[in-house]
Every structure is written in C-alpha cells, then in structure tokens.
Amino acid sequence: MLRIHKAPMLAGALLILFFPWIARQLPTISHYPDLMVFAGIYTLITLGLSLLMGYAGQISLGHAAFFGIGAYVSGVLSTQFDCNPWLGMLLGAAVAAMVAVIVGAPSLKLRGHYLAMATLAFGIIVNIVFREEARWTGGPDGMIGIPGLSLFGLALDSAEKYYYLVWGIVAAVFLFSVNLIQSPAGRALRAIHASEAAAAAMGIPIARYKVIVFAYSAVLGSLAGSLYAHYMNFINPATFDLFFSIKLVIMIALGGMHSIWGALVGAIIVAFLSLEWLHYFEEFEVVVYGAILLLVTIFMPEGLVGAPAKLMARMRR
Amino acid sequence: MESLPFFNQLLQFIVTGLTIGAIYAMVAIGFNIIYNVTEIINLAQGEFVMLGGLVMVTVHVMWGVPLPLAFGLTVLGVTLVGVLLDRLAIRPIRKPSVMTLIIATVAASIIIKGVAMLIWGKSPYDLPAFSGRTPIDLGGVIIQPQYLWVVGFLVVVAIGLTWFFNRTIYGKAMSACADNPDAARLVGINVRHMVLLSFALSAAIGAVAGLTLTPIALMDYDRGAMLAIKGFGAAILGGLGSFPGAILGGLVLGLIEALSAGLLSSGYKDAYALIILLAVLFIRPSGILGNLEVTRFKRF
Question: Phi-psi bin for A153: left (phi > 0), alpha (psi -120 to 50), beta?
Fold first, then answer.
C-alpha cells in the first residue's frame, strides 16, 4: 500500500502524453480530450481526498466547498479586479488553505460521524454563501465572462492545449503525493488511520498531521476549481453543491480508497459517467450513482484498483 | 407584517420556530433510536421524512383514502423502506467501519431521493391540513391548526417511546443492545432483530414528521438532506443518544432558526442551523444533555 511501483506510472504518463493524438485518429472519441480535461480536474481533487480519506482515514462530505472556493476566488478576481488568472489561482489556494485550517483544526479533533457531519454542514454553508452573496458571485445564476488562461503568451484556447496544462499539473501533484506517501509523513498518516491512540503513543502529532493533510486536499480542490473556472468561463453554485461532494466520495470509493491509483481511476470513470455515458439514463442518473456507491461499498470495499489483487488471492486459495 | 408591533412579531417567530423545531426534534429522535442500538448515524433519516410527506400525498390526495387510514398506510409504507434499508444496505456490509457505514447510508439516501424524483417529479406537493386552515388568533399571534398537530404528534411520539423503552420487552431489549450488544446477545436477545426494529421505528417516526410537516411547508423529493442535517444538529445540540436532549435540541434549533431568519436575513435561513451545529461540534460535542465520558466509550 505504501510502495508505489514506477512502471505503471511511466505507462500512465505515456498514455496521457499520446492520448490526444490517439483520440484524433478515431472520430468517435475525438471529443475525449475535452472530457479528459474534466477528468484531470476531478483527479486533482481526488488525489488530495484520497490522502485524507484513504491514508489518514478522515471522511469529508464537503470537499465541493474547496472546489467552489478556488473557482469563485479565481472568477471574482479575474472578472471584477482584472487580476492575473495565475495570481488569482494562487490566492484561491491560499484562501482554501486558510479556511481548511480554520475549519479543520476543530473538526479534525472530532472522529467518525462527527467529522462527516461537520464537513457536510461546512459544505452546505459555503454553497449558501455562493448563492446569497450575489453582489460578488452573481447569486444562483452564477457568473459569466471568466477569462481563459495563457501560458508564456500562448493562449490555452483549445481543449487539447488545456488538456496538457491540466494533466501536467496532475502528473506533478501525483509525483508529489507519491513521495509524500512514501515519506515518514505518509507512514504517520497510515498509523493514524490504523489507530489514533497507538499513533499518538508513538509520538506522532496526530492533530497537526490531520490538519496538514486536510489543508493539502483543500489546496488541491481549490486549484481544480480555478482550472475549472478558467476552462468553462462560467460558474454557478449548483456545480459545487452537496451532490458534487458525494460524487467525489463515489470517485474515491469506486477507484479504491487505499491506493493513490484509485483516485485517478475513480475520477476518470466518474467524469466519463457523468459527462458522457449516463446521459442515456437521464433522470435515473442519481439512482445509478447511489447504486454504484452502495454496491462498491458492500461487494468491493477495496475499489476497482484493489479488486484484481483480491480476486487473485481468492483464486490461489 | 410591517404593521405588527415588534413584540407580536417576535411571538409569531417563536410559535413558528417551536413548530418547525418539533419536526427537527422528531428527526433527531429518529437519529437517536438507530444510533443508540447500532452506533450508526443514518444519513438517510431525512429521506424518511420526505417519503412520509410524498407517500401521504399519493395515498390521501391522489387515491382519496380517508385521513386516519392514509396516515396508517403511509407510516407502514415508510417503515417498510426503513426495514429494506437495514436489510439491503447496512446488514450486507462485511467489515463495518464508520467510513463504510456513512458511505452506505449516503448511497441509500441518494437512491431513495432518486427514486422519489422518478415517482413524484421535481415539483413540490401540498397536503390538506388535518383540521382545516382557519388560523387561530391568539391576541395578535396567528396559530395554524396544523401547528398544534405537529406539536401534538411530538408529544405522542415522546410519551409512546418512553412507554416503549421502559415498559415493553422489545423496548427493554433494544435498550440492552444499546448498552452492550455482546451482553445482550448472551442473555438471548436477537441483536439483528433489534437493529431491524430500530430502523423500522425510526423510519415510522420520520414518516410522521414528514406527513405532519407537508401541510405547512409543502414537500418535494429534494428536502431530505437538509432535514437530515438539521435533525442531526438538533440531536447533537441536545446530546447524541439522549431523547429529552433531542426534543430540547430540536425546539432550540427551530427557535434559533425562526428568530434569526426573521430578524437577521432570511436568505441565510438554512445556514444558521448549520452554523449552530458546527459551533456545538467545536465547543461541546457532547451537547447540552449528553455525557462526554459516555461518547468516549462509543465504538465509533
């Protein structure tokens, strides 16, 4: 669980690198780079959330709030203050980190149910603020005209260019997270998950570690939000509601909570589900998500990433 | 409203607050019943309330079944959903942990919500008030007859549960499971049945809350989550697991919400209750009537 092999990472990087080229060859999937932009944005959030939930064992039902904070800070700063989008992104991340520490420090002392409900309440409150502060956020209708991004004078104005930006960031964050997991900090997080009392007895400052991981996941969520806002050029509160927080949990649970690969797999699958495949289900969509989440929890608690190993173990027996 | 003297307006807010607080109290009691037996927080609790309202609309308004019978059928129907929830979502989990149980009840809640949307659509439904809508004027304060029904049902539920847990063999068996499931098993109590019973009972109470609320505030498929989290707020405020605490917490939360929405800003109506919830969690997670020492010994 702590050791992460290099070969799949290399294969994944190559696949990401050549995917737009492959998509261009096949007309039926030529719009997939656009979907992969969203998948990459979701992956950024789940990479943080998987560290928080899978490695540190703390549940969050309010991470859509941080996604929203990033999007709205970027949106408001770039449309109303003519702020440089990159600077806005950094400021958004700073705000998210600050909020995470303020909310996290008392919340993370709580365990289990209490923490889940605290994050749930926090997420709903933030969403209400997005709806009510119409002067800044445009209220329930949202805000339009958020500028796109450009890098060294090159406007990232196509799905393919944005794809490389987003997945470049995802790759960097992935490598950073891998290093984090394999460092003493990562082992400390695992220890906290296994038993808080034992971890504390070994001298691990559990409160500090939990807050740091919470803030790290908030920063990633905010970063994803900024990227989303500058890609869509439009945001509204409905994107950052409770259901999105639950969707993030579905991504983590489906991919596999205890592996960083699960964050990647789950985010990509749910992105394709919600933007492409579940269109056939229309109104049934919510029921399908619920069913997926329930079935995974009951029959596949290790998620898709953990399933093959489990199957092998059962076959060998 | 502007012409009303301030004092009357205040009394009006208090009356509405206590009514909505009685609903939160019933939701909180539902949380407590399941929590006491299983130590699970059932995040689908709000869906029972939503179903109570919408099933009643179908049975009473659409099928034209007379009120008392429709009431019974609705409570029965929602109780069945509670039983299914335990059998299909909770019991099959092989290695229950807080995280998997929370996720399972979240999954169940969005399934119930999704199915409700397919059946009833997205528009809100009204239900005729149980004894008409002629308001009772009490010295300038308007009281809807339905308000009295809501508070009355809270009293009935509270007395009924006190009797059930103290006087009946099933109630005592459930309390035993809450204290110590292993010891309960040793004296021959079927813990699984008691867990099932707790889900059934809390679904029934949720249904009562929903069908008494609907004539006041309408009902639609999407109301469950907010009702659940406010009911949980009430349970936490009073002290998780405590029945008197649930009633006290519910009424206080309803009052705070009605007063702050009326006197401060109504746009943030839903936020106040949640801010109270967060404040209680941060400052005194054991609530007003709860015991911190006891919470420490809980498994989750």
Answer: left
